[in-house]
Design brief:
By secondary structure, the protein is mainly α. Helices cover 59% and strands 0% of the residues.
Length: 79
């Protein structure tokens, strides 16, 4: 699965959880850039991504994610 396909699936997870698509995900995107991406929705997004990709993130990986780019790299390492 290439990076574009991963981003597309990640975007789907965000839309499913946040119920809007008023954002553009880039490697530099953080929670500050997306309306509704808060602590509780963050965990819901992570859970949705785990389901979509059939993976389970390690706690240390979650703690080291600072932006969408880090999320993409972690997904790539898990699939």
């Amino acid at each position: 699965m290439n990076k574009e396909e991963i981003i597309e699936k990640v975007n789907t997870a965000f839309v499913n959880v946040l119920a809007h698509s008023n954002f553009e995900l880039t490697d530099e995107t953080t929670a500050n850039d997306v309306d509704g991406w808060e602590s509780i929705t963050h965990m819901m997004i992570i859970s949705e991504i785990e389901k979509l990709f059939n993976i389970k993130f390690k706690l240390m990986d979650l703690m080291n994610m600072n932006n969408v780019g880090d999320l993409i790299k972690t997904i790539q390492s898990e699939i």
